[in-house]
Amino acid sequence: MYKGKKVIAVLPAYNAALTLEKTYQEIPFDLVDEVILCDDASKDNTSELARSIGVDHVIVHSDNRGYGGNQKSLYNKALEEGGDIVIMLHPDYQYTPKLIPAMVNIIGDELYPVVLGSRILGKGALQGGMPLYKYIANRALTLTQNLLINYKLSEYHTGYRAFSREVLESINFNANSDDFVFDNEMLSQIIYAGFHIAEVTCPTKYFEEASSINFARSSKYGLGVLRVSFSHLLQRLGLGRFSIYEQPPKHAKAKS
Known about the structure:
The chain has 256 residues and is of the alpha/beta class. The protein is 39% helix and 14% strand. Helix 8 runs parallel beside helix 9. The longest helix is centred in the last third of the chain and has 22 residues, at 215-236.
């Protein structure tokens, strides 16, 4: 715990057997109380490995629900388990667990309710192996999003995120897409709800075992990001009403 707040790390997993244990071993368990992993119908032994190394809660999807669908299961479970600070950590070791203390401190000391691990702050993205086309697309999309959403982030596309319980209870994340654009919809909801977001510099690591999406999926994702940004603009101006910005049902907090 951190100052009486329960800390839960959630791991969205798909075919993560090669990198899961290395990721898990670096989690700072002096701060993290519980770990929840959701295996989105992996074709390897991800869920079996997770249980064997001591992951507290292992959710297994019988059918692949997508990256967004995976996160929905994780956040719902984290809220059910009484999480006050919830960190999403990819088990492919692309993001270092060593940043968890900084993210927990920021939320636990009530400086910001949301923290993103940014790959773009600083100059390490390309040095860390981010493909040039992804870097250029990231910068172009982020500029467009900052203008349309009326906010300022260095990037909207990192998968390393931490949230307070209040944030997760205040946004309707279950109404979001089950695909990769879920992440952007979530940030749009958070900003629309009036929460402020902190960013910390995160080292970039691209290697063969790290998960990534191909050019076609990246293009689909980019179009989805633009859709979300324009929807946010219309919602903010009162020219549209979109279900993802509606109030969610309340979650019951588990007893400690």
